[in-house]
């Protein structure tokens, strides 16, 4: 029976900052830890969103692809979905949505939300795949494509991490989106408003998996980096 109380995370956002962008887990391995999730491919190859066990990649051309088992990722979250109804919302901005969710749950543990509904003025991004020698996260993220839709139906899949874990993950919310038509999505930069249903799944355990077989990661000195500053710049 699947463990629905554990959030699995491969890698950390911190390792992306200096450009440690090797794929260190396969999609097949990631899916062993969940049927729902988000991530990015080797070299920041697009934005991933996993729904109902299907891994979708939004690439830098805006195309939505279902990736194969051997697709590799430097960073990803996954878990086995068991969401419960939380609330319904009408015309809420991202900030209003986050405030509403936080009023109904705790800021002191990890959780995931899925919001299904209609979104106005949705803005997403995906980064073009880079190759070795990799640039830094902030430099690589400059090579991003931005996509917009005036109105789109779809799923906003989000993970919330307590502030004390900032650096391992994004402290606060991290949002990815996929349209119902599977023709639009990515890392969410913002939207005008959302009307739809909000569901939530809370975790009591974070399973943090590190890429110990990757020599670049194991030998890297992170001490000279403003890890949190760079993460917030790139993920904002």
From TrEMBL:
Alphabetically ordered keywords of this record: Acetoin biosynthesis, Decarboxylase, Lyase
User: Which EC class heads this enzyme's classification?
Assistant: lyase
Q: Which SUPFAM superfamilies match?
A: AF0104/ALDC/Ptd012-like
Name the gene that codes for it: budA
Q: Which PANTHER family match?
A: ALPHA-ACETOLACTATE DECARBOXYLASE
- GO BP: any one term: acetoin biosynthetic process
Reactions it catalyzes: (2S)-2-acetolactate + H(+) = (R)-acetoin + CO2
Q: Carries keyword tRNA-binding? A: no
Please name the InterPro entries in this protein's record.
Answer: Acetolactate_a_deCO2ase (IPR005128)
Q: What is this protein called?
A: Alpha-acetolactate decarboxylase
Q: What is stated as this protein's family in its record? A: Belongs to the alpha-acetolactate decarboxylase family.
* EC annotation from Swiss-Prot or TrEMBL: 4.1.1.5
Task: Please list the GO terms describing molecular function.
Answer: acetolactate decarboxylase activity
Which species is the source of this protein?
Answer: Companilactobacillus zhachilii
| Keyword Lyase listed | yes
According to its UniProt record, in which pathway does this protein act? Polyol metabolism; (R,R)-butane-2,3-diol biosynthesis; (R,R)-butane-2,3-diol from pyruvate: step 2/3
């Amino acid at each position: 029976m699947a463990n629905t109380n554990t959030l699995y995370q491969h890698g950390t956002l911190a390792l992306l900052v200096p450009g440690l962008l090797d794929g260190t887990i396969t999609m097949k391995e990631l899916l062993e830890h969940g049927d729902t999730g988000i991530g990015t491919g080797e070299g920041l190859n697009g934005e991933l969103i996993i729904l109902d066990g299907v891994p979708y990649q939004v690439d830098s051309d805006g195309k939505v692809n279902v990736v194969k088992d051997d697709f590799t990722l430097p960073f990803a979250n996954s878990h086995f979905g068991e969401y419960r109804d939380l609330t319904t919302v009408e015309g809420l901005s991202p900030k209003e949505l986050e405030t509403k969710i936080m009023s109904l749950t705790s800021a002191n543990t990890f959780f995931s939300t899925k919001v299904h509904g209609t979104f106005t003025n949705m803005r997403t991004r995906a980064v073009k795949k880079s190759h070795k020698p990799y640039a830094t996260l902030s430099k690589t993220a400059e090579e991003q494509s931005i996509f917009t839709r005036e109105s789109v139906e779809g799923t906003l899949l989000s993970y919330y991490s307590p502030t004390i874990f900032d650096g391992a993950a994004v402290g606060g919310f991290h949002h990815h989106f996929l349209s119902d038509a599977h023709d639009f999505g990515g890392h969410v930069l913002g939207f005008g408003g959302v009307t739809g249903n909000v569901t939530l799944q809370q975790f009591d355990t974070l399973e943090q998996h590190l890429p110990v077989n990757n020599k670049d990661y194991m030998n890297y000195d992170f001490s000279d980096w403003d890890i949190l500053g760079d993460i917030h710049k790139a993920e904002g």
